[in-house]
Request: fold
Amino acid sequence: ETKEKKIILNQNESIILYLTPESFEIKEVTLSTKPEDYNITSSNLGKIELEVKKLEQLPVLMGEKDVLKSIQLLPGIQSGNEGSAGFYVRGGGVDQNLILLDEATIYNASHLFGFFSVFNSDAINDINLIKGSPSANYGGRLSSVLDINMKNGNKKKFQSSGGIGLISSRLTLEGPIKKDTASFIISGRRTYIDVLTKPYLENTEYAGNGYYFYDLTAKLNYRISEKDQLFISGYFGRDVFSFSSSDWGFSINMPWGNATSSIRWNHVFSNKLFMNNSLIFSDYKFEFNGTQEVNNEPTAQSSLFSGIKDWSLKQDFNYYLNSKHTIKFGLNNIYHEFTPSSFTAQIDSIDFSLDNIIKYYAHEYAIYINDEFHVNEKILINAGLRFSGFTHYGPFERYLKDESGNIGAISIDSIISYNRGDKIQNYNGWEPRISLRYLINDSSSIKMGFNQNYQYIHLTSLSASSLPTDVWLPSSSIVEPQLGRQYSIGYYKNFLHNKYETSIESYYKTMDNLIEYKENYIPGIAIGTDNPDNNLTSGNGKSYGLEFFIAKNSGNLTGWIGYTLSKTTRKFNTLNNGNIYFSKFDRTHDLSCVMNYQISRRLNLSTVFVYASGNTFTLPEQAYLIDGQMIIDWGTRNSYRMDPYHRLDISLTLKGKQKKKFESNWSLSIYNLYNRQNPYFIYFDIENNLGEENGSIELKAKQVSLFPIIPSISWNFKF
Reply:
């Protein structure tokens, strides 16, 4: 602190002044591995790196922080239905997003039938989304890569954090196993919807309903030496829906979810060469178990199962050749086991289990090389080449259909049998990727890119959103791999010393060999007598658009505005009379506005406003009777749109008083502040007035809305 003392200079004198340190509050210091103008100087095109800390400030539905819903607020990324955690990138389907958690594939990233994601934000370290030109080490999907890395755990001291919300609570523990050498983190979450709603449902028609989800994330890391490090991570999550009625003598139980594990060994050969070896397991399964009882004795039991398992081995190298070249190369192999559906039943002690459940076995493999090199100070090129392949192996039985599309009599002539290890079908191809950055000046650049991708696995669905009953299928002798090509160009400009970030990106994408169920197909249990891919048809898709983005990254007021203008179409020769039609989630306009305002050191205000063109749907145009049977004449596929979707969310976060070993905050959120009745789906009610003198049949479209205004509160803590 400054101290003043008057001195009279009339004699020699020694003076001692005791000065005390001055204390004052400084702004937060952020350490980053990337410069502030990284969006300008890098070769990344369509890549977004999200900070978990910023996501935690956004308004949330029912107090549940959600990574995937936050991603939907970015340009080029669209949500599905109201509240859904599924996302669609530049006209692609939900199955065209490669979602990785510590390198393990997540096949169903949603809880609560799609309303929440499976990712616990307390255990996440960083989030990288690539919607443009991914480097050659990524592959297997057409539209995007969402690469999520878990926290490693604190190597210095023990910590815990968590939160209590309206529908779930979570707890995270982390700390050293051996200080500065090994650490752990474990994070769990569970809903208590079933506990809270049970008293209110006991005397209603919904009595016996039960639903909950839970997940557990864990990671260990061990520094073996200065050049070797070992990581072991895993995830396990389940949704469980149950129903039981003593009046009906019927009960069901439906569990589904993901399980993953990965072991990674990092080794540094030198300051130029780095290696990462990974052994990965991924499992997704869905089960349906039903029991029929008479006089409290089970008379019939049935079980339905579907799922996909992966065992993967991959090896990646980073080689820093010199200041101009950074090279990546590697290879990987995935062994897939698909179980589209298996069925067992027992009625009055008679077993109807089917032994010849049809499964698919396949290897998916790839080898790649990628080089990011500086041509000069202005030009930076990221170029890569990936060769991928897919082989379907036996054992397998192919059921042949006749010209009418019917399975022939079960005989040697209608079934082709393959033994274990027999090669049934093989696909492969080259996947080039390139992106170029031209630096106009210190604050602006132009980027261009092209990439080609093969996707060898497919998601079959009868619904407009991703559900646990959807089935993953591989490419086969009937179903060819999807092929996507994307061209993109963007202009990037920063203002006021990188305080403001802006960009305009344009893209054009084609997609071949997309699949849909055949017209008027109704799924049934035909296990052992048919192949699921016999009921599919293929077609092509196209998507193009413009994406605008402006963000303020520093100061008390931060946030961004993202807007997308796009068009997405599909063309199947066997659907819609072979005519082009809009994709289900084609949206001409998509706008997101996000704002965070630090009112004071302890108080933060956040708002989110979204607007989007309505989803497309098919409308029945007329209904009539023929021989007493009602016939409905449907219009052109997806030729009508629902009303536009828009809503405003707001949240207020109050930090508790700062204590040495304990931090906490209260978060109050209001979802859909002005109570907009957004359409969830449209159904059609038939009014029959044939008994009157001038009888008629009238179809009336009726809208179902899901979420009204929803306030929520949560308490978060860390110590």
The longest strand covers residues 297-320. The helical segments are 38-41, 52-55, 67-71, 193-201. The CA atoms of residues 559 and 707 lie 25 Å apart.
